């Protein structure tokens, strides 16, 4: 028994050198060490005592290995995760017997410490960890092994402290998985990404960017100075697209307005490979700005859309072929139709002259009307093939919309009467402007004919005036018929759409599409206000001049 | 005795349309001569008596309507140059064709009422 300190009024703290509390401390305190290579506890050298006390005091799982046999002592935290692994993990047992399964790397580690007097760090080592329910699972630990010196300066043992790094290891694994997933995804979609830190002017290119530029793998760098990267990249851009690309690049470094936090840009251009092959690229970028409007970071993607472009070109070509065919077919159909129409007219004339049977006369008239229907359907089809972006040519001349409207209405008066509708026209005395008369006539005929078709025999109102505020001529055709649902209201101006499909209504559904093309080609607009069951109001605005 | 009927020259490449035009005009009391294209028409004009009116299709092979008009009007002293010409055209915008030195332009398919109205202007009923 060793008296540690004896002062007056000072109660000795303990008479036992072992300070720790807890299960292992108690276990060590009461264990019969004389049976082990370490000998009785009160004969332990001070270096060992200090080491053991330190081990018992730390919260890290900690081990002391002492003596040539590296006899084992451990603390509660260690006991919690490791002990009971074997039937008996006994204090004092040589380390070799404690964990022979790890000896292939632990043995040499201990040797290094003991012989070279080195401190050795084993990072992220895989061990088996005991769980609360008594089962064991894989866990990673970083273990630090430090030599313990005895009083004579010789190495007498090893202090081992463990830190569990399982979570970090798992996160690292997930990160690697996700990184490699990302790389795979980029490779699959031919889309690469890059990040430019505008404070350091360092840009990082993903693998796929390198692949896009067909840079040999040995030349890939994980980061570039932005000027070097810009140089390499711009050199690959097709000479005809370079100006545009540089312009876009420079434009994105300035916020368009002071409060803008981030700016998004998109651009398409071509890369030219060394062998002359062209790649179409869709590049997007986003720049973040700080409070002062300085650009701090840009991220971007570059996607190889060459295949898509090829498909688009194919599609466009196919559409042209189809339109060409439609045009030729329509013209071809027109010829016999012209003959038919004239023949039927003549037939009716002769029938009347010869005082033919009433049945013949009425059948003849009906046949002629059929041929007229056919002719107008064909005209619609022909118009559509002619109307493509920019292909609609107008022959503008000064005309009075009032006269055109009245003439158009007159053409339909009989048809309207048959359905029970009356058409009234309210117009300003003169509505003069520069428009294509036959095209405007088409629009008028279409709107009035629709009003009759869908008007359910109710009155139809045509109004025409000059809106002096906007400087436009305003044409309105109102019916009180079936009306158009909200979702159909935009669709009816598209090709081949009809608000209702019904056997009673004829036509190709192209009329409003054509009308819209004509009106917009004049610089005007057409829209509808309608409610199912309440009728429809079509509003056409045409600028008066030019 | 029948007074001399007006003679109308039809220049149209489509035989069916030519035929129905001829029938219609003859029914109205006109006499009709035909040609299948501009060249044929020019040749016919050299040989047969001058028609009172020409009905001219524009889109024809060998020599189209526009060229025919240019040719026939080239020499204003030639009496053929004075024959009134009415164009019958399948091309949609009839207004566009007016600049040609012709009297009238009618769209196809022809409306016979309209046609007779125009013809009567140049061949008035006695």
List the helices and strands and how they pair.
The complex is a heterodimer of chains A (546) and B (126).
Chain A: H1 23-30, H2 46-57, E1 62-66, E2 71-74, H3 76-82, H4 95-98, H5 103-116, E3 120-130, E4 136-149, E5 155-164, H6 166-189, E6 191-197, E7 202-205, H7 207-212, E8 224-225, H8 226-236, H9 239-251, E9 262-272, E10 278-289, E11 295-304, H10 306-353, H11 358-386, E12 397-400, H12 401-419, E13 423-427, E14 432-435, H13 437-453, E15 460-467, E16 472-479, H14 486-491, H15 511-521, E17 525-531, E18 535-543
Parallel strand pairs in A: 13-15
Antiparallel strand pairs in A: 1-2, 1-5, 3-4, 4-5, 6-7, 6-11, 7-8, 9-10, 10-11, 12-14, 15-16, 16-18, 17-18
Chain B: E1 7-11, H1 15-27, E2 31-35, H2 38-47, E3 53-57, H3 65-74, E4 85-89, H4 94-97, E5 104-107, H5 112-122
Helix pairs in contact in B: 2-3
Give a description of the structure.
The complex is a heterodimer of chains A (546) and B (126). By secondary structure, chain A is α+β, with helices and mostly antiparallel strands. Chain A contains 15 helices and 18 strands. In chain A, the strands form four sheets. In chain A, strands 8-7-6-11-10-9 form a six-stranded antiparallel sheet, sandwiched between helices. In chain A, strands 2-1-5-4-3 form a five-stranded antiparallel sheet, with helices on both faces. In chain A, strands 13-15-16-18-17 form a five-stranded mixed sheet. In chain A, 25% of the residues are buried. With 126 residues, chain B is α/β, with parallel strands linked by helices. Helices cover 38% and strands 19% of the residues of chain B. Chain B is globular. The two termini of chain B are 15 Å apart. Chains A and B meet through α10 and α11 of A and α1 and α4 of B.
